[in-house]
């Protein structure tokens, strides 16, 4: 389990590099760091449990049980906090995404991240393609189109025009 958590934590940190412009709050990496710390602690606890079982130590097994109960309580608390604050996290991420979309000009690093995100997630805009209608880029192009990264991969002649929403 500790190895699995280590992999998940490392994967989240590695993936974060692609989306760091959207997650301007550096605390966005905190869950991944916590997962890695939990993996280390789980390895140590597993080692204690194995040693206590091997030696048939009642004190060691009691300590192992107490630690497992504390971990269970911490997991339940984390679940409740995640459930309670899910809307705040959603609002914060959407606000940051809107600000990054507002900075889109097709050339800057933020633009590359937006294009990458839209291509990887097969989406257009924060909620849908109409989000682009309020950006400076949309108004400056004058042709009522969204970036080509909004186009479906199977659409061959997609130009990003809004009168062809089936291609977005």
UniProtKB/TrEMBL annotation:
One term under GO cellular component: plasma membrane
InterPro entries in the cross-refs: Tetraspanin/Peripherin, Tetraspanin_EC2_sf
Topological type in the membrane: Multi-pass membrane protein
Segments passing through the bilayer: 28-54, 61-85
Domain of life: Eukaryota
Cell compartments where the protein resides: Membrane
Keywords, ordered alphabetically: Membrane, Transmembrane, Transmembrane helix
Pfam families per record: Tetraspanin (PF00335)
Protein name per its UniProtKB record: TSN36 protein
Organism the protein comes from: Formicarius rufipectus
